[in-house]
Amino acid sequence: MSRQQQSHLLLHLIILLWACTGLIGQQLPWPSEIIVWYRLAIALIMLTIILHQKKTFHGLLLLNRQEYSLAIAGGLTLALHWWCFFTSIKWSSVSLGLVCLSTTPFLTTLMQMILYRKKAPFHELICSMMTITGILIIFNTDLQSTSAIIAGLFSSFLNALFNIINGRLSRVRNAILISWLQLAAGLLTASLTLVILKSSLSDYIPSEGTEILSLLFLGLICTAMATVGCLWIMKELSPYTVGLSANLEPVYGIMLAMIVRGEQEVMSEGFYLGAALIFASVVANTFMIQRKFQPQKPCA
């Protein structure tokens, strides 16, 4: 197996791990802000150990003010994104939270149009209309989950913002240092969230084996190791390939949720119609981007 094939395999394994996070968050009987705090703390400790062993902390001195600012902003955005995502799932279901998350490509395009004054291609406008229609259908057929849908869409908005911030940081050489800074800023944000919401960590100390294993899997495997693995993948695969493949996260997540939770994840017919429109827009957009970037065959 070639290095590129290994990278593709590892990429889809990482996407599968990301898809597991919603299921873990649903299973843990704690508030979203507590889960996010533990996830960030465990991942930060792991990355600190890795950086200490590599003796690369001195690289922080080489970052400029803009890189620090973007990294901190990214960490704040990431923590709030996770909080909204887990909140959406706890207020409704894993499937609904992940369908809302699948609107990230649409929101990323919309934000880039606003921030960079870019004109969207015709196919992106069509895909955007499909996404909006899908969201409206879900809203109208699942009125009991309105709060969860709003939280999920705000989570998707924050995820799109995080992607744009990371796009500005893509040229930084030591990307793992940026990830460490983002986790540190995210942990500070999560700590402030605990204070604002008056949640005490002392009330949610993991005692059962399943809780400890779930948190370790979420923080170490799904976050810290997935981050390191993704950085390694980026050396072999283009950001374009990684970004397109990441759109499969909601699909993997919903399939896992249906397998593990069964009837608890069964939603209304309107939900599946709206979800189908949103997923169709993601697939169509992915197909059009692939055609755009497909290399031209040389003339004979």
Structure notes:
Helix content is 78%, strand content 0%. Helix 2 packs antiparallel against helix 3, helix 3 packs antiparallel against helix 7 and helix 5 crosses helix 7. It has one domain. It has twelve helices and no strands.
Short description:
The chain has twelve helices and no strands.
Provide the fold topology:
Blueprint: H1 3-27, H2 32-54, H3 65-91, H4 94-101, H5 104-116, H6 122-141, H7 146-168, H8 175-197, H9 209-233, H10 239-246, H11 249-261, H12 269-293
Cα-based radius of gyration, to the nearest Å: 19 Å
Class based on secondary structure composition and strand pairing: mainly alpha
First-last Cα distance? 32 Å
Mean pLDDT: 84
What string gives the helices and strands in order? HHHHHHHHHHHH
Q: Number of helical segments? A: 12
Number of strands: 0
Low-pLDDT ranges: 295-300
General form: globular
Largest sheet: none
Helix content: over 70%
Percent strand equals under 5%
How many domains make up the coordinates?
Answer: 1
